[in-house]
Amino acid sequence: MNLAELNRVANAMVAPGRGVLAADESAATVKKRFEVIGVECTEDNRRDYRELLFRSKGMANISGVILFDETIRQNAKDGTPLVKIIEQAGSLPGIKVDRGVKPLPFSPGEVVTEGLDGLRERLVEYRGLGAKFCKWRAVIEIGPGIPSYNCIHANTHALARYAALCQDEDLVPIVEPEVVMDGDHDIGRCYEVTEFALKMLYQELFHARVKLEGTVLKPNMVVPGKNCAKQASAEEVAEKTLRVLKECVPASVPGIAFLSGGQSDLDATARLNAMNRIGPLPWKLSFSYSRALQAAPQKAWSGRVENVGAAQSAFAHRAAMNGLASLGKWSADLEKQAA
Q1: What is the mean pLDDT of the chain?
Q2: With helix as H, strand as E and coil as C, how does the chain read?
Q3: Is residue 339 pLDDT above 70, yes or no?
Q4: Does the N-terminal or the C-terminal CB of the chain have fewer CB atoms within 10 Å?
């Protein structure tokens, strides 16, 4: 393990003013999003859409791109590997390596992420294809009587085994324990579950001998459930999220790149900005968004060649806004000016 190189890559992923684009949606997920904009989910359309993002000016604010297995192997229309286009934009290619969630036995309503079997061999292949970092997502639901200890333990143990394998193959692991927003729970309940998950995660990472200097954490923000009657201000989300992170995340972690997790574009930006305005903090706070970066360009594109420029502009705008939020320099007025 080359810890100095892992630390260099981890720091580059959370460089000031930049963040990670999560473009690792499976074909099934892309199909759902393309249906909304009336686009057929073919391999060529998936490639064309991702290529327009990777060739846009918005990549100036993108430190790394998480790819799906299909995408890391694809070439652009002109024959250039998409990985090379990402590198030419000054960003790092990464890869999703988990194989999705399956029901957790004897834990109704809970899931565990699978994909450890054969992972080392896949990591070797992905590194050969140009990957510098990896991602593994654990999914933790809040509901009556859940999450259970069994669910938190199973998922954090798997995250730790994945992270150790990544580092052993000189790849930076993004560790993602996502407490999802679904449900009517309040922000206090989200805080409790997030604290439980993060404390278990760092215990498991310690036992697996993972070097935290060569990792990036991708957590949820502490927010109320989507169906909660009382929603929270950006300031309350920022205060509670930072409180739980300071309680649980060691200072040796280079950076924290939040997932958007179903938040609106503006909420994801405003809440990240509110956190970075509080400071000083022991780690860099950035973003690793999928929908909060891609919803606007997908709508603008709608599968039409003549809309590529508009889609690239929409992506560049959202990337720039989140870049400013990672510095605590965003304001709602900047959104109005762009409109």
Answers
A1: 96
A2: CCHHHHHHHHHHHCCCCCEEEEECCCHHHHHHHHHHCCCCCCHHHHHHHHHHHHCCHHHHHEEEEEECHHHHCCECCCCCEHHHHHHHCCCEEEEECCCCEEECCCCCCCEEECCCCCHHHHHHHHHHCCCCEEEEEEEECCECCECCHHHHHHHHHHHHHHHHHHHHCCCEEEEEEEECCCCCCCHHHHHHHHHHHHHHHHHHHHHCCCCHHHCEECCCCCCCCCCCCCCCCHHHHHHHHHHHHHHHCCCCCCEEEECCCCCCHHHHHHHHHHHHHHCCCCCEEEEEECHHHHHHHHHHHCCCHHHHHHHHHHHHHHHHHHHHHCCCCCCHHHHHHHC
A3: no
A4: C
| Rounded Cα–Cα distance for residues 69 and 126 (Å) | 9
Asked if 271 and 234 count as a contact pair (C-beta separation under 8 A), the reply is yes
Strand partners, 20: 64, 288
- pTM, two decimals, is 0.95
* Domains of the chain by start residue, with CATH: 3-338 (3.20.20.70)
- Closest by CA to 23, choosing from 56, 60, 53, 61, is 53
Concerning whether 32 is annotated as a catalytic residue, the answer is: no
User: Catalytic site residue 43?
Assistant: no
CA distances from 122 to 99, 166, 208 (A): 12, 10, 20
Going by their DSSP bridges, the two strands 133-140 and 92-96 should be labelled as parallel
284-289 and 255-258 beta bridge pairing? parallel
- The three-state (H, E, C) secondary structure of 32-96, written as one string: HHHHHCCCCCCHHHHHHHHHHHHCCHHHHHEEEEEECHHHHCCECCCCCEHHHHHHHCCCEEEEE
Q: Are 89 and 76 in contact (CB under 8 A)?
A: no
Query: Out of 176, 178, 204, 240, which one is annotated catalytic?
Result: 176
